[in-house]
Amino acid sequence: MEKLTSKEIREKWLRYFESKGHLRVESKSLIPVNDPSLLWINSGVATLKDYFSGKKKPPRNRLTNSQKAIRTNDIENVGVTSRHHTFFEMLGNFSIGDYFKKEAIAFGYEFLTNELQIDPKKLYMTYFAEDLDTKKYWMEQGVEESHLIPGTRDTNFWDVGSGPCGPDTEIFYDRGPKYNKRGLELLKKDIENDRYIEIWNIVFSQFNNDGENNYTELKQKNIDTGAGLERIASIMQDAPTNYDSDLFINIIKEIEKYATVKYDIDNYFKKDKKQTEINTNFKVIADHIRTVVNAIADGAKVSNVGRGYIIRRLIRRSIYKGMQLGVKGLFLHKLVDVVQDSLPYEYDKKPVVVAIKEEELAFHQTIEKGKLLLEKFMDNKTKIFSGEDAFNLLETYGFPIELTVEILAKKNIKVDLKAFEEAKERHANLSRGEKVNGMDKVINSLALIKGKIGEFIGYTDLESKSKILKLLNNEEEVKSLNGEGYLILDKTPFYATSGGQNHDHGFILQGKNKIKILDVFKDKFGNHIHKIEGKINNKDTVECYVDKEVRIGMARGHSATHLLFRALVKVLGPHIDQLGSDITEERLIFDFPADEKPTDEQIKKIEDIMHGWIKQNVEREYIVTNIKKAKEMGAIMTIDESEYMDPNNIRIVDFKGITKDLCGGTHLDRTGILEDFKITKVEKKTAGVFRIRAVASHKYVKQYLTELNQSLKEQLDALVKKAQSFDSKYQIKFTPNKDVEIECANIKKTIDKVHEDIKELIKNKSNITFDFDSVQLTKNKKYPYYLNIDFDSSQVKVAAATLREKFPEAIIVLGAKSNNQILLCVAAKVLDANKLFQQIASKTNGRGGGSSIISMGKVDYTKDLENIIKELI
Q: Which residues of the chain are in CATH 3.10.310.40 domains?
């Protein structure tokens, strides 16, 4: 058996199945498109589901791929077992109504024994005991009966309860008695082991389960297979575990550069307890960084929800494992290059590095705070840590529950995980402020709808007389309702939440009964589902009325969003993309990628461009066409073309000469109807992602400026009062203006002036005798600094703050001696002052804290204190 690299194995697989008439399908993004049932693409077949269901016609009935996938349901086992991963590549060959068992088995045997030259005597196959055809076809390939292990419905029959299902056959490779002496008993009893490695599973989709376990033969039989690249690589490279193959070992070697200990590939057989723990930590980091890099490269963003929380959890867990290996400082972002070397595809590394580095910086601050809090608790005698406290650590400091559990476990303290989950759920219920896309809603009765039955007429009509096709409660179809329920009409003018635009408002009449519209969303077939409240029956027709004022407000926001996108591209560059939007009648939100926040000058340019387009009063046109013509027209496509429900019937919104986009939303007839536009806020949403909040129309721009004006005046008034607390005679004036926007700008300038005056007043009030003008900064590799630990304790904080403002480019560290301790204050604008203070405190038995610009506390005095501080600056 020839030793092969993972790249060679991957390519051999794809070329072999291409030679057998399969179409090579490129690996798709890890983030599912139009499939709310999945958080991540988690298998080779996940991106091909619509071909198997018949929703889409496959480009060929034989397909092959090497699909990247993520599974994070059992993170704690990563690094502990030999083959458990959160990111992996699944090699697959698929037949959609083409070949079946005989050919699939022949392909499997030929690839393993001829292409990979695996000794047939090393291969064992399990099969469903009642599936004698599979047994026969394996024996026709020359497999001895002693190598065929009959399995049960639990081990060798794929069935999810209803729908397509069937038996499967699994291929195992025997690595020999040095991995386990028990032999075939391990396979026959389905015992987890490292000797017989499952490398390939072939599922025969043969039956349909009606949900009551009544099975009928499918007219179209399919083949779905999956072979783990990581497992095959470990076998072909004779590696003790997957982590010792070329997919991981180079990453582990890179991690060793930053650690104080080494990975030992031979420890699998040595079983040294301490080295096992070290190896596990290396494996966890190597696994998690592969997942993080691929997920971010595919567009996932670090956050506290959904996919973003998974990424954050993996990054933070890796940092903690790195600390256990003796890693100091930031290192994860430095692994991006070596991860890419093991992958068959290229991606833009810069945003990946930036996102990981920012999360590392944030977590290093978090972990110091969390450790201090946990250390205080560990002094107590109790052996149970409150779930509520564990959740507060997560919510307030971002300290992961996994780390809380691990740290406390070393002191034999258990965390009340049930109470933690309850606290987390309570918080989630309170925090659900944003709209949930309709396809994410769990309404059991929607399963009764089998296809597209309703029509949307709301592009042209805002009223209709409609027939009721389906009247539903949460569980079933009903004849009448008096309360909340769901409705599908033969035709509806109500727009459903999609494309960032929220649903229409309005009401339905049935006779004298007025029915409220609570929500409108789409099911998987594109039907508009109306969530309603009122008294209604399914026999009589209804009259639908869309709220026209709200609709035009939505259209104004949606058109403004398209125009804003083009303005951003013009000002910030062609790399700008739309990462998300949320549009209501009153405001719009737009998320976009950027390395840094747009400047005030750039925001002004964007607003000027928008105002110019409003003044031009450009006409809007709708064009209904197909994908091919849309491409020829240069229309902007936001998703892969294969994901459009009907690629021959797509809608383009064209603001002539400005932008041409595929969009199903509602829009203004002309740009002039936008009236006015104002960006109200630009904020950082997460690493590499910024959010613009904006308003449109005379009404909402005026409302925003009026509220801003009032808020600024209140701020100014409060600041003047603060200044007067230092000097009762203090006064300041600003110049009023009839133009509210100009007046707001004047007040902002005045506020800045008062802030400066207060600093001067504080300085004077403190009677500081120190000569600030005599201060000379010491040059350093990155930032200059001023260090003085022989200060007056009553003046330390004020002096540090004053010097910080005088030297914003520098790090200020001041201290005052008190017995065997130093009252130490760190102030800075160029880095996180509290983080630096905590680093100093960790080396000097210190305690204290503060903000990112000033932090203060007590540390032990030693002769080396100044050297310790200098090393950390």
A: 772-872
Distance CA 802, CA 823 (A): 17
Please name the helix (run of DSSP H) or strand (run of DSSP E) that holds residue 364, with its range, or none. Answer: helix 349-378
Kindly report, as residue ranges, where domains of CATH 3.30.930.10 are found in the chain: 6-243
Q: Which of 638, 641, 640, 633 is nearest to 665 (CA)?
A: 638
Q: Using DSSP, how many helices (H) and how many strands (E) does the chain show?
A: 24, 32
Give Cα separations from 36 to 31, 412, 623 (angstroms). 10, 41, 29
| Class for the domain spanning 445-546 | mainly beta
Q: What would be the CATH architecture of the domain defined by 6-243?
A: 2-Layer Sandwich (3.30)
Instruction: Give me the pLDDT at residue 649, please.
Output: 78
User: Which H/E stretch holds residue 484?
Assistant: strand 480-489
Name, in order, each residue with C-beta under 8 angstroms of 683's C-beta and a sequence gap of 6 or more: 690, 691, 693
Q: Does domain 772-872 have CATH number 3.50.50.60?
A: no
Query: Which pair of tokens denotes residue 170?
Result: 């699994």
The answer to whether the CB of 322 falls within 8 A of the CB of 332 is: yes
Q: Give the pLDDT band (50/70/90) at residue 200.
A: very high
Nearest Cα residue to 141 out of 168, 114, 175, 167: 114
* pLDDT at res. 593: 79
SS3 481: strand
What's the alpha-carbon Rg for the chain, to the nearest Å?
Answer: 32
Closest CA to 601 of 636, 566, 572: 572
Residue-level pLDDT at 663: 85
Q: In 3D, which of 648, 447, 601 has the Cα closest to residue 529?
A: 447
Tokens for 393? 């650590």
What is the pLDDT, as a whole number, of residue 381? 63
In this prediction, residue 501 has a pLDDT band, given cuts at 50, 70 and 90, of confident
Across residues 114-130, what is the average pLDDT? 97
- Amino acid at position 19, single letter: S
Handedness of CA 836, 838, 844, 848 (dihedral sign): positive
How far is the C-alpha of 754 from the C-alpha of 758, rounded, in Å?
A: 6
* CATH 3.30.980.10 intervals, the chain: 551-696
Q: How far apart are CA 661 and CA 147, in angstroms?
A: 59
Q: What is the pLDDT of residue 429?
A: 47
Q: Can you give the pTM of this predicted structure? A: 0.54
Max Cα-Cα span within the chain: 102
The pLDDT value recorded for residue 638 is 54
Neighbour tally for 574: CB within 10 Å: 7
CA-wise closest residue to 516 among 492, 485, 538, 489: 485
Mean pLDDT of 763-790: 80
Is 611 marked within a binding site?
no
Contact call for residues 213 and 219 (beta carbons, < 8 A): no
Shortest CA distance to 162 belongs to which of 200, 212, 114, 197?
212
Q: 551-696: which CATH number, 3.30.420.280, 3.30.980.10, 3.30.450.20, 3.20.20.370?
A: 3.30.980.10
Q: Which of the residue ranges 430-439, 556-565, 589-598, 683-692 would you say has the lowest mean pLDDT? A: 430-439
Higher pLDDT, 803 or 400: 803
Give the pLDDT score at 801. 85
| Residue-averaged pLDDT of the chain | 88
Angle CA 605–655–650, to nearest 5? 130
User: Does 85 belong to an annotated binding site?
Assistant: no
Q: Determine if residue 698 is labeled as part of a ligand binding site.
A: no
Query: What is the token pair recorded at 33?
Result: 């498109």
The answer on pLDDT for 423 being more than 90 is no
Q: Is 22 annotated as a binding residue?
A: no
Domain with CATH 2.40.30.130 in the chain: 445-546
Lowest mean pLDDT among 37-41, 697-701, 862-866: 37-41
